[in-house]
Amino acid sequence: MYINFWYPIARADEVSADKPLRVDLLGMSFVTFRDEDGAAHVLADTCVHRGGSLSQGWVRGGRAICPYHGWEFGGDGKCKHVPSLVTAKIPARAKVDSYPVEEKYGIIFAFLGDLPEEERPPIYEIEEFEDEGWKSQLYVYELNAYYERSIENGMDPIHNQFVHPKQGQPMLEPEMQAKPVPMSDIPWGSKFYLPFGQKLDHDTDLKGDKTGERVGAAGSWHQGPNQLVTYIDLTATNSFHQYMFEAPLSESKTRVFFINMRNWLLDDEYDERIETVTLEVVHEDVAVLEALQPSRTPDTNTKEILVPGDTAVVRYREYLKDWDARGWRIDYKKLMAKKGDVAFAIPCPGRRESGNWVLDTVPMEPGNPEMIGSATRDSKIGKADVA
Fold first, then answer.
1. Digit-coded pLDDT (tens) for 234-245
2. What is the spatial distance between Cα 8 and Cα 140, in angstroms, rounded to a whole number?
3. Nearest CA among 120, 118, 112, 123 for reference residue 351
4. In DSSP terms, which residues pair with 254 in a beta bridge?
5. Which phi and psi angles does 98 have, rounded to 5°?
6. What domains are defined for the chain?
7. CA neighbours within 13 Å on the CB side: how many for 93?
8. Crossing angle of helices 311-325/147-154, nearest 10°?
9. Are 220 and 155 in contact (CB under 8 A)?
């Protein structure tokens, strides 16, 4: 799990100015709430007085109030009022980490890291989100699996015919499966887009509603470690564009915010039908992912026999190695070992501007600046990493 990326926190309609909401993510706890102007905020969920959970308190006047002794924290993370200090000055150290927030697509996102704004990887831009010819549905679900395995599943074009017998697409032609999947790099990620292969005997319950000349192409790409895009272009006029923003709660649990866009069957009466078909496919994936061994991505590709059809998975792992080299991976084992003895926080951008913080920064695995860019530049695709 990594710092310095945008993560989905909650549905926008779950976050209010009346009550704080606790969110678990990256092995840590956060509190989110709205101020009096309706702007959403995300803070570390630990009062620096005596360790109270801010999410168990309440919101008043746009501040998160600790239920233990009433300390009040603004959206900037700074303590604004201490009831027991009637006339004394509030200590400068009375602050908790506050994270940059964006509200998009009906989701509250937070940037969990300390990079300055100009260096931050972006939230994926859904260009067609507000277009009249497209309709969106947002599904949120959890699975007992590691998020990297989930992203890899989305970057895998050869599992569909086995895991999704009704859908079965995109499917590589047999001769294509013997070659590396054609890949291209995008900012902060990699991409493939392929024509459909053989047509299976089965199809989804939407088969009879297709219109337009058959295009038959699909592809997936990732941006950062936790954002996945899948295009399924069934015909010239019938497409699903799917965007998954994944929130790793721990090393064994993931919450997925899934935006399903479609440019056909746009009337509300089709929503339930589309949802049923879509979530059927999702649950097929979940059943496989929850049974994987090892449950987390192996440290080395030699612990799995990879084939040319795994090209996109290998490329994703090369990007992970690059973010490892930057020192952005959380040392989760050390975090779990020390949790309970130490109150940790994901470092926020404010830590670059001031010191004297009470909460310790989450332990990180050491990076290697000399190796930054080497994993993605010197790709092993088609060489030793695949059979």
1. 887 899 999 999
2. 10
3. 112
4. 143, 248
5. -120, 135
6. 5-119 (2.102.10.10), 135-314 (3.90.380.10)
7. 7
8. 140
9. yes
